[in-house]
Amino acid sequence: QVQLVESGGGLVQAGGSLRLSCAASGSIISINYMGWYRQSPGKQRELVAVILSGGSTNYADSVKGRVTISRDSAKNTVYLRIDSLEPEDTAVYYCNARIDTPYYRSGRDYWGQGTQITVSS
Hints:
4-stranded antiparallel sheet; 7-stranded mixed sheet; elongated
């Protein structure tokens, strides 16, 4: 079993910054990738950023230049820093990871419970 626990969401003013954290725990053999999705009312869930096992990163066009994804492999933790926050960034942010375990040795996707970011204008 694997658990992903997010933290760092909250209410911020437009133009501010914040950093989200997601820590994975459980029977982890290896982590193939970790990333962040978000979903706002009336919209589909979209990929924000992902970091692969080799360290390469991918970002959605909507956040390029304002977002940085990083990881602490020793702690099985991924971070998402968002600068110059806009009201359009308001959403529930979900941590996602592809993880190999003794039960699913070829890997399986896991999701956190989500953390709310609200940006006021």
